[in-house]
Design brief:
Oligomer: single chain
Order of helices and strands: HEHEEHE
Number of domains: 1
CATH superfamily: TT1725-like
CATH topology: Alpha-Beta Plaits
Largest sheet: 4 strands, antiparallel
Number of helices: 3
Structural class: alpha+beta
Helix content: 40-55%
Radius of gyration: 16 Å
Number of strands: 4
Length: 107
């Protein structure tokens, strides 16, 4: 894959897309309503603070588990990585032990 500077010099548009996947285990959730309240709060806070797209990706009908995806894009790969690291830090602060795993992928 060509370097971003080479592609830009050739007159093509470069876009870096990053996906942060958060695996959650919400032990205190006793219903889907409890789970949705936690997810809604997380999504609203991340969207408001970082201008990212946030959605539940898996375990829609399960009370205590969820997979949440966070997506951002930029013309600079480094900016995407840094942004997702900041989002991850905020998610860890908000969720604490509810966040059991995560991954960051550049697409």
């Amino acid at each position: 894959m060509p370097e971003a500077a080479e592609v830009e010099a050739a007159g093509e548009f470069v876009m870096a897309v990053g996906l942060l996947t958060l695996e959650l285990h919400i032990a205190d959730a006793r219903s889907l309503k409890d789970k949705r309240q936690i997810l809604r709060s997380l999504k609203d806070r991340l969207r408001g603070k970082f201008n990212v797209a946030v959605a539940e990706l898996d375990f829609h009908g399960v009370w205590q588990s969820s997979t949440v995806g966070v997506v951002t894009l930029s013309n600079a790969e480094q900016h995407v990585e840094e942004s997702l690291q900041h989002v991850l830090a905020e998610a860890q602060r908000i969720l604490g032990p509810v966040l059991v795993d995560h991954s960051v992928d550049l697409l």
